[in-house]
Amino acid sequence: MITTENLSKRYGAATVVDDVSFTCPPGTVTGFLGPNGAGKSTTLRMLCGLSTPDAGRATVAGVPFRRLPNPGRVVGVMLDASAQHGGRTGRETLRVSADVLGVPRGRVDEMLDLVDLDGSAARKRVGRYSLGMRQRLGLAQALLGDPEVLVLDEPANGLDPDGIRWMRGLLRQFADGGGTVLLSSHLLGEVAAVADRLVVIAGGTVRAAGETRVLLQGHDDIEEYYFGLTAAARPLPTTTSLPMPAPTSATSRDGASR
Ligand SMILES: Nc1ncnc2c1ncn2[C@@H]1O[C@H](COP(=O)(O)OP(=O)(O)OP(=O)(O)O)[C@@H](O)[C@H]1O
């Protein structure tokens, strides 16, 4: 189970996560969806104890992440698949994690098999991995401690269509076994196929949340629906190459009409 209650975070004057509350029950996959800058990563970082909320709280399996004695045995986290030590091989990376978690080293090969990194990939330095291979290694690392919860920031990033299908199967299996999955994405189409539930965030606030089937019911064009939910919070393009209207007496200096 994952719970966030009235979670908020400010950077300077900007509130980038604003009163965000949702739950992810065991046995389900929840898609955490939103455009660039929506506040997804900031929310996940607070959930995983990497950033302190200004207000509200988040728990995993009923406990704030930082109070979990051995967090990796409860929650598998992949927030940035590129943040691996480039000089270690895939197998060495997992062995170090296995030692930290206190799980038998035999589990390393099980996880390498599970994520389809073969012997030669396991011997390769991570610095030479493709983005898709890093995502697979990140998933192996997240699963190493046999957690009950998975928190994954854009796990499909860099995977080809086969890889995305494979990952969906893996997450489905994890949830069907009673696990809780929260995964973020920019793309509704990418997660709608696997997510039982959706939380749509934009401009730091939750725009919609609930069962995927119920939320998308009656929307023939789900991408258009999603765009509509988030469009109001999309930042305006700031590129200077766009033609700017000449100031008129009816327009103030900041561009707002009087
Ligand atoms: N450490 C920080 N200092 C200042 N502002 C930050 C910091 N981290 C994030 N932000 C700002 O908070 C807002 C939300 O960022 P966040 O990374 O959570 O969004 P996101 O939904 O994960 O976006 P993306 O899909 O592009 O990764 C953005 O405007 C971002 O610039």
UniProtKB/TrEMBL annotation:
<dbReference type="InterPro" id="IPR003593">
    <property type="entry name" value="AAA+_ATPase"/>
</dbReference>
<dbReference type="Pfam" id="PF00005">
    <property type="entry name" value="ABC_tran"/>
</dbReference>
<feature type="domain" description="ABC transporter">
    <location>
        <begin position="2"/>
        <end position="228"/>
    </location>
</feature>
<keyword id="KW-0067">ATP-binding</keyword>
<dbReference type="GO" id="GO:0005524">
    <property type="term" value="F:ATP binding"/>
</dbReference>
<keyword id="KW-0547">Nucleotide-binding</keyword>
<dbReference type="InterPro" id="IPR003439">
    <property type="entry name" value="ABC_transporter-like_ATP-bd"/>
</dbReference>
<feature type="compositionally biased region" description="Polar residues">
    <location>
        <begin position="248"/>
        <end position="258"/>
    </location>
</feature>
<dbReference type="InterPro" id="IPR027417">
    <property type="entry name" value="P-loop_NTPase"/>
</dbReference>
<protein>
    <submittedName>
        <fullName>ABC transporter ATP-binding protein</fullName>
    </submittedName>
</protein>
<comment type="similarity">
    <text>Belongs to the ABC transporter superfamily.</text>
</comment>
<dbReference type="InterPro" id="IPR017871">
    <property type="entry name" value="ABC_transporter-like_CS"/>
</dbReference>
<feature type="region of interest" description="Disordered">
    <location>
        <begin position="237"/>
        <end position="258"/>
    </location>
</feature>
<keyword id="KW-0813">Transport</keyword>
